[in-house]
Amino acid sequence: MTVGKVSERTIRRLSHYARCLRHTRTEGKKIVTSEYLAKRCGISSAGVRKDLAVFGEFGKQGSGYDVQSLLANIERILGTGKPSHVIVIGAGNIGHALLESGLEGTGGYNYSAIFDTDPEKQGKICAGTVIQPMTELREAIKELGDVIAVIAVSDGEGQECVNQLVEAGCNAILSFVLEPLDIPEGVELRYIEISTELDILSHSLMLPGR
Amino acid sequence: MTVGKVSERTIRRLSHYARCLRHTRTEGKKIVTSEYLAKRCGISSAGVRKDLAVFGEFGKQGSGYDVQSLLANIERILGTGKPSHVIVIGAGNIGHALLESGLEGTGGYNYSAIFDTDPEKQGKICAGTVIQPMTELREAIKELGDVIAVIAVSDGEGQECVNQLVEAGCNAILSFVLEPLDIPEGVELRYIEISTELDILSHSLMLPGR
């Protein structure tokens, strides 16, 4: 899959570099080498240098990359670095856990609102944020501007939730729901798939030689 | 990345087929076509037929695949289909959300135990399961056999947690922790990366034409 002109794999690596650089910055480090980034991100240092050269970043021989400017440039490419609104649909276990865990250290993302269809939950507070009814969705998205919506509703409610999000003008969705979802052209949808990750690990456990 | 002889991408698609077939089974459907699987999994029907042919599954022209036997064969390849133990390290927000959400519909996985380093939490009940101290880890893994460990500890505690898991004989780990983790050869580690998924979506939002 290609995300615009930059492939998804590259975006993924850049995201890892950015995360690592933020860690590094909090440790007070000003300069990193490609070897350091490579080791922390689990790829080859030649790979790191190649990635960064594509985006016009050249580390100095023997001294490395400036943490602050490298991070700023990667965040510019990623489109992160400015605060970005993330809204959560579904104030169940996962929704609560997400808001309570927060998004610190992720490059400016914030959980800005949470919604639920259950009138029992609406008006209650989840990690400092009022749970809103779905009828407020359109108004909230209009106010916030570009948002990424995280779907953490019950299995079987995912499609209706996506329909309402798209209708309300949201075009970037991250789903924790197991069911496959239909989206119109122009909407980006990604899945957090715990069960698929377990399948991949499970498969690796039964390989010969283990 | 290749997982044994079958590529990770293929395993991922097989996992999607399996999930879709389980859904289909609960709906009482006995036969599916490649077109149906393709639509539900978001790939081409030629792709589905090619995947399944590799594993010796041939749908009948005009009638399709038998749901039950196709699912059994895919689960055999994946190594799922029998109950598999998943343990959780960290009884915080994410750990609680995982156990409370459960793993129904995922092909036999079960959260079998949960551990935490915090003496305040140990002995308390999380979704019907007693929170155990990390000192019980080795004994628990010995008793359960092959386990997949999900790490949901605080940022900064991930590496120590991995070290203890590996030491206790666990060789398949799924991490919710943001920090990059070092593992010895022979241990499989995967990440659930909410922040990377947000970065990929965020990048797509700023592409021209949106």
Blueprint of the fold:
Two copies of one chain form a homodimer.
Chain A: E1 2-3, E2 6-7, H1 8-26, E3 31-32, H2 34-41, H3 45-54, E4 65-66, H4 67-78, E5 84-89, H5 93-101, E6 109-115, E7 125-126, E8 129-132, H6 137-144, E9 147-151, H7 158-167, E10 172-175, E11 188-191, H8 194-205
Parallel strand pairs in A: 5-6, 5-9, 6-8, 9-10, 10-11
Antiparallel strand pairs in A: 1-2, 3-4, 7-8
Helix pairs in contact in A: 1-4, 2-3
Describe this structure in words.
The structure is a homodimer of 210-residue chains. Chain A is of the alpha/beta class and 210 residues long. Chain A has 2 domains: 2-77, Winged helix-like DNA-binding domain superfamily/Winged helix DNA-binding domain (Arc Repressor Mutant, subunit A, Orthogonal Bundle), CATH 1.10.10.10; 84-196, Rossmann fold, CATH 3.40.50.720. Chain A has 8 helices and 11 strands. The first copy, chain A, has helices at residues 8-26, 34-41, 45-54, 67-78, 93-101, 137-144, 158-167, 194-205; strands at residues 2-3, 6-7, 31-32, 65-66, 84-89, 109-115, 125-126, 129-132, 147-151, 172-175, 188-191. In chain A, strands 7-8-6-5-9-10-11 form a 7-stranded mixed sheet. In chain A, strands 1-2 form a two-stranded antiparallel sheet. Chain A has a two-stranded antiparallel ribbon with strand order 3-4. In chain A, helix 1 (8-26) runs antiparallel to helix 4 and helix 2 crosses helix 3. The radius of gyration of chain A is 20 Å and the shape is globular. Chain A starts with a strand and ends in a 5-residue tail after the last helix. In chain A, 39% of the residues are buried. The model of chain A has no long low-confidence stretch (mean pLDDT 88). The interface between A and B is large, with 66 and 66 residues.
